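Sanity check

After download, print the first record. It should look like this:
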Amino acid sequence: MDIQVGAHGEFTPHVYAIPERKNAQGETEEVNIVVHPTGLPDGNSIRRINVRLGYTMDEAEKLARLILKAVENARAGKFDEIGTQLAADLVAEDSA
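Expected C-alpha coordinates:
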Protein backbone atom coordinates (compact mmCIF):
# COMPACT_ATOMS: atom_id res chain seq x y z
CA MET A 1 0.00 0.00 0.00
CA ASP A 2 1.25 3.46 -0.84
CA ILE A 3 -0.07 6.36 1.21
CA GLN A 4 0.92 9.90 0.32
CA VAL A 5 -0.19 13.07 2.02
CA GLY A 6 0.02 16.30 0.12
CA ALA A 7 -0.46 19.90 1.06
CA HIS A 8 -0.93 22.92 -1.17
CA GLY A 9 0.25 26.41 -0.46
CA GLU A 10 3.08 27.58 1.71
CA PHE A 11 3.30 26.27 5.24
CA THR A 12 5.69 26.07 8.15
CA PRO A 13 5.75 22.96 10.32
CA HIS A 14 4.65 23.66 13.88
CA VAL A 15 5.82 21.76 16.97
CA TYR A 16 4.68 22.27 20.56
CA ALA A 17 4.51 20.48 23.90
CA ILE A 18 1.40 19.83 25.96
CA PRO A 19 2.37 19.83 29.65
CA GLU A 20 1.72 16.99 32.09
CA ARG A 21 -1.90 17.10 33.20
CA LYS A 22 -4.67 15.15 34.94
CA ASN A 23 -7.33 13.53 32.77
CA ALA A 24 -11.03 13.24 33.63
CA GLN A 25 -10.32 10.06 35.63
CA GLY A 26 -7.70 11.88 37.73
CA GLU A 27 -4.82 9.97 36.13
CA THR A 28 -1.66 11.83 35.18
CA GLU A 29 -1.16 12.21 31.44
CA GLU A 30 2.50 12.56 30.49
CA VAL A 31 3.94 15.42 28.47
CA ASN A 32 2.98 15.11 24.81
CA ILE A 33 4.97 16.51 21.90
CA VAL A 34 2.73 17.47 18.98
CA VAL A 35 3.87 17.92 15.38
CA HIS A 36 1.78 19.55 12.67
CA PRO A 37 4.06 18.83 9.67
CA THR A 38 1.96 20.99 7.35
CA GLY A 39 1.54 23.79 9.88
CA LEU A 40 -1.40 24.70 12.04
CA PRO A 41 -4.80 24.44 10.35
CA ASP A 42 -5.97 27.78 9.00
CA GLY A 43 -9.58 26.86 8.33
CA ASN A 44 -9.06 26.71 4.57
CA SER A 45 -9.27 22.98 3.85
CA ILE A 46 -8.73 23.51 0.12
CA ARG A 47 -5.36 25.17 0.68
CA ARG A 48 -4.00 22.93 3.41
CA ILE A 49 -4.65 19.63 5.08
CA ASN A 50 -4.12 19.17 8.79
CA VAL A 51 -1.85 16.39 9.98
CA ARG A 52 -1.23 15.99 13.70
CA LEU A 53 1.28 13.55 15.15
CA GLY A 54 1.54 13.09 18.93
CA TYR A 55 4.59 11.66 20.68
CA THR A 56 5.80 11.08 24.20
CA MET A 57 8.97 12.99 25.01
CA ASP A 58 11.04 9.80 24.58
CA GLU A 59 9.42 9.04 21.23
CA ALA A 60 9.92 12.63 20.04
CA GLU A 61 13.57 12.58 21.10
CA LYS A 62 14.15 9.32 19.22
CA LEU A 63 12.42 10.73 16.12
CA ALA A 64 14.49 13.92 16.29
CA ARG A 65 17.70 11.90 16.41
CA LEU A 66 16.58 9.78 13.45
CA ILE A 67 15.71 12.87 11.42
CA LEU A 68 19.03 14.53 12.26
CA LYS A 69 20.93 11.38 11.28
CA ALA A 70 19.07 11.20 7.95
CA VAL A 71 19.83 14.87 7.23
CA GLU A 72 23.51 14.48 8.10
CA ASN A 73 23.79 11.34 5.95
CA ALA A 74 22.03 13.01 3.00
CA ARG A 75 24.36 16.01 3.20
CA ALA A 76 27.26 13.54 3.06
CA GLY A 77 25.70 11.84 0.01
CA LYS A 78 24.70 8.70 1.93
CA PHE A 79 21.19 7.36 1.47
CA ASP A 80 19.37 4.38 2.97
CA GLU A 81 18.31 1.54 0.70
CA ILE A 82 14.63 2.38 1.12
CA GLY A 83 15.20 6.01 0.05
CA THR A 84 17.27 4.97 -2.94
CA GLN A 85 14.62 2.44 -4.01
CA LEU A 86 11.82 4.98 -3.57
CA ALA A 87 13.70 7.48 -5.75
CA ALA A 88 14.10 4.83 -8.46
CA ASP A 89 10.40 3.92 -8.22
CA LEU A 90 9.35 7.57 -8.53
CA VAL A 91 11.54 8.04 -11.61
CA ALA A 92 10.02 4.90 -13.15
CA GLU A 93 6.49 6.18 -12.40
CA ASP A 94 7.26 9.55 -13.97
CA SER A 95 8.66 7.84 -17.08
CA ALA A 96 5.63 5.59 -17.52
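If your output differs, re-run the checksum step. Summary of this record's structure: The mean pLDDT is 77.
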